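Lab notebook, design round three. We kept the backbone fixed and only want residue identities now. Task for the bench partner: fill in a sequence for the structure below.
Input structure tokens:
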């Protein structure tokens, strides 16, 4: 017999919505990614990196629930980096963490100050600095992995952005080894979870989460078209438009990065080394 919702705390209702109402949309694809890509192993100590946005907050709850029911013992640290948030944004993260009963560990940096002074690729610089600080802090806490909240939609958009603006076929892998922090790995537990389903879960629970909260995000938010100068937002809008005539387009893109046929590629890179078509044609007889 199900429990009366009136007897549940807000946190319990949120957890129930993940396991019950949105099981097919959130819990099942989360578990599928963890198993398919072997993201969590026995003895892991994982720093779940929380930016305060909807994606990382949901990831934290999913990882918390996984720890409760998993036969594989592992540890979690819920790590929040303050890159220079305004006071109200920092308080929003702390309130949401308290509401969702996520025991956060907070550390501070000056990343926003540094990135905001850079006119060339400030978002890239910010992302690089964030990741470096997260790796460093997680390693200092004895963790061997950091978990980031990139989801299915991020994977799709990144793949298309690479083609359109980076002149390359490059995907976002579900996990990778750090080159600067030996022994550390990055995992993406939301790899198979769609952003639309995260938004639906957020709205169902009447939750408000933080966005990037830097001046570049504010410019995007104030733009008349809702896109601003963000190439990611342009790609997001394009995919949304293409879905009107091809509802399976995201699934097709996702499947394509799992079914790459190197024999048909002209040139490709592996471990930083370029393999040209003519080299392979002459030496391998392709």
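Proposed sequence:
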């Amino acid at each position: 017999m199900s429990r009366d919702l009136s007897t549940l705390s807000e946190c319990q209702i949120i957890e129930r919505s993940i396991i019950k109402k949105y099981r097919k949309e959130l819990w099942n694809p989360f578990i599928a990614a963890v198993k398919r890509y072997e993201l969590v192993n026995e003895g892991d100590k994982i720093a779940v990196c929380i930016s305060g946005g909807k994606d990382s907050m949901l990831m934290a709850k999913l990882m918390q629930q996984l720890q409760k029911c998993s036969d594989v013992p592992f540890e979690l640290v819920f790590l929040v980096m303050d890159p220079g948030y305004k006071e109200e944004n920092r308080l929003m993260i702390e309130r949401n963490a308290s509401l969702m009963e996520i025991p956060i560990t907070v550390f501070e940096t000056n990343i926003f100050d540094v990135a905001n002074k850079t006119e060339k690729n400030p978002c890239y610089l910010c992302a690089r600095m964030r990741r470096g600080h997260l790796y460093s802090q997680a390693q200092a806490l004895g963790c061997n992995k950091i978990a980031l909240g990139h989801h299915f939609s991020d994977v799709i958009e990144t793949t298309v952005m690479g083609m359109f603006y980076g002149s390359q076929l490059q995907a976002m892998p579900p996990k990778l080894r750090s080159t600067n922090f030996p022994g550390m790995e990055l995992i993406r537990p939301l790899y198979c979870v769609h952003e639309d389903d995260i938004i639906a879960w957020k709205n169902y629970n009447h939750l408000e989460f933080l966005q990037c909260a830097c001046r570049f995000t504010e410019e995007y938010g104030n733009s008349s078209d809702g896109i601003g100068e963000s190439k990611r937002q342009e790609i997001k809008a394009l995919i949304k438009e293409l879905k009107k005539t091809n509802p399976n387009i995201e699934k097709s893109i996702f499947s394509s990065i799992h079914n790459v046929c190197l024999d048909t590629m002209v040139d490709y890179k592996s471990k930083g080394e370029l393999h040209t078509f003519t080299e392979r044609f002459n030496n391998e007889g392709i």
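Keep this in mind before ordering anything: The chain has a mean pLDDT of 89.
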